[in-house]
Design a protein that fits this description.
about 375 residues, mainly alpha, abc type-2 transporter like fold, four-stranded mixed β-sheet, 4 strands
Length: about 375
Amino acid sequence: MKQFFIFVRKEFLHVFRDNKTLLMLFGLPIAQIVLFGFALTNEIKDSNIVICDYAQDNASRQLIDKIAASNNFIVKEQMIDQQQIESVFQEGDVKLVIVFPNGFERDLLHDNRAQLQVIADASDPNTASTLTGYINSITTDFQQHLNQMTTMQPVVAAEIRMLYNPELKGATNFVPGVMALVLLLVCVLMTSVSIVREKEKGTMEILLVSPMNPLTVIIAKAIPYFFLSLINLTVILLMSVFLLDMPMNGSLLLLYLVSSILILCALSLGLLISNVTETQQAAMLISLMAMLLPTVLFSGFMFPLENMPVALQVIANVVPSKWYYIIVKSIMIKGVGFLSIWKETLVLSGMTIFLLLVSFQKFKIRLQ
């Protein structure tokens, strides 16, 4: 046992002496959480819109104030003709034009119905759809407020309620996916590369003929990456909560427990990859292809799995990041306990045990 801990200590020292390894371990996760948290988001903020208020009455002013109070828009009030609207869009700076016609408040009070024109630049249909959705939400809220303040006949409208993420923040969706991506990518990459590095340098033969059991050597090499991955997880959680306003409503201990299972799963995959590669470049390439694409495509944090063909949905079930993504969202956002995620945890644990058994069985104790 003393030899085992000495070997683990040696592996820790090897990691901290290698600047490239440290950069991949800690620099890559921080860069990914920042990029995914801020750049890849389904929110649209600070979009320039033009409001043409031909009515100039209290009702139009109140609605304009509500629109301006939203952080989704930067309001530029102008008085332009209908013929100038197209030229405004052609300049490329404005995404939306809202026109309040004359008599907006009069129509609202006397006819119980008023109209405003919303014109969007549909050259980017996703952006146009999102921005018009924001406007519809604001006008619906304004209408409901008027119904409470006046004796007008109420207008039947669907009540929309957004659970767990009422502000539709993108971080709520992307952070759990980034956690799965980072833990899988770093663990698989570091484990496979560290073992293949020993092969390239010729030191693996020395380790395999040492008095220690070869599998014990491999476990000793994996332990530092297990604990360093937990540190990575801590850094990601701190950045998510304090930088991206990600909620943490569930048990932190349960989250670390499930994350440990995923880390073990990733270490097993790294061991498998190291068994079939002879160079660090090949190990890195296979690790990136095996972890990056499946996690991005089949975990559900970038592309909804429900929209995929049935065959791809079946393939997604064998991707560990899918189950981890579901678990993390349930713990952090919904605040559920183990009883609500035991099925997903059981699937992830089964994958981990299976990969551990296969990786240990397939590991070559002889290099030739």
